[in-house]
Design goal:
Structural class: alpha/beta
Strand content: 15-25%
CATH class: Alpha Beta
Distance between the termini: 19 Å
Bound molecules: zinc ion
Number of strands: 8
Helix content: 40-55%
């Protein structure tokens, strides 16, 4: 059976509190052998660690301050990340980035928090998981300012153009995370995907959000990764096994799984 890795799943979210056992059973039946759990903020930390400890063979946690959690308490939140980054075997610093979609009130702080966490990742020799929303130029500005420090990671929920993808590659060893959005009708990223090498793609659900077709509108879960992989396979005209093998290898290498 094809083996998949979900490189972005918030399975510790409250949305799964009632049926996580069944969710785990379904993802294992679907061939998902591992899930990377991105961090968000202090409030999400304990549930994430608890889930990761319950099945260390299946879950790998990350630590990071999500841009939409950058607010009044941003210094306390950032210090928490810095203080605890060595506590567990975190496989990445993430998710981190800049989000201008929800609010620009703390844009200055978001930018600083992003830059400091990139620097932290380089110090710890960890990959980063980057969240970019309505902030392409701001993200590239930070990456340009930090030019010279060794960066690697993933641009999560990538939905950009081929030109943006080429720009990303100039700033480090980056993959693009492809999820449910790529299955939506008229998704611009489908055209981009035709030109992106399978060597640069990792799969992700972003569960419980960004549910792929044919489940769009429902809660997302890691077993749906198969539908994302099948869609990529049809766009690229290759068997789904080819997508599974390439993306699983990429994920293992990137996150040292
Ligand atoms: Zn996420």
């Amino acid at each position: 059976m094809a083996e998949f890795i979900d490189t972005h799943a918030h399975l510790y979210d409250q949305a799964f509190s009632k049926d996580i056992t069944e969710v785990i059973q379904r993802l294992e039946e679907a061939g998902v052998s591992h899930c990377v759990l991105p961090g968000i903020d202090i409030s999400a930390y304990e549930p994430m660690i608890a889930l990761a400890k319950s099945r260390p063979d299946l879950f790998s946690p990350c630590i990071g301050l999500h841009p939409t959690s950058v607010g009044e308490d941003w210094e306390k939140e950032l210090n928490f990340v810095k203080k605890h980054a060595r506590d567990h075997r975190f496989v990445a610093i993430g998710e981190i980035g800049i989000d201008k979609y929800w609010s620009t009130e703390y844009l200055t702080q978001q930018t600083r928090v992003f830059a400091e966490q990139l620097t932290l990742a380089a110090e710890l020799n960890l990959p980063v998981i980057i969240h970019l929303r309505n902030s392409t130029e701001e993200i590239f500005q930070v990456l340009s300012d930090l030019r010279g420090i060794p960066l690697r990671g993933v641009f999560h929920a990538f939905s950009g153009s081929y030109e943006t993808y080429k720009r990303i590659l100039k700033h480090g060893d980056f993959k693009v995370g492809i999820g449910g959005v790529s299955t939506y009708k008229n998704a611009g990223v489908a055209a981009t995907l035709e030109k992106i090498s399978l060597d640069d793609i990792v799969l992700e659900t972003d569960a419980p959000w960004l549910t792929p077709v044919p489940f769009r509108g429902k809660r997302n879960e890691s077993s749906y990764l198969v539908h994302i992989a099948a869609n990529i396979a049809s766009i690229k005209g290759v068997p789904i096994e080819t997508v599974a093998t390439a993306t699983t290898n990429n994920a293992r290498k990137l996150f040292s799984l």
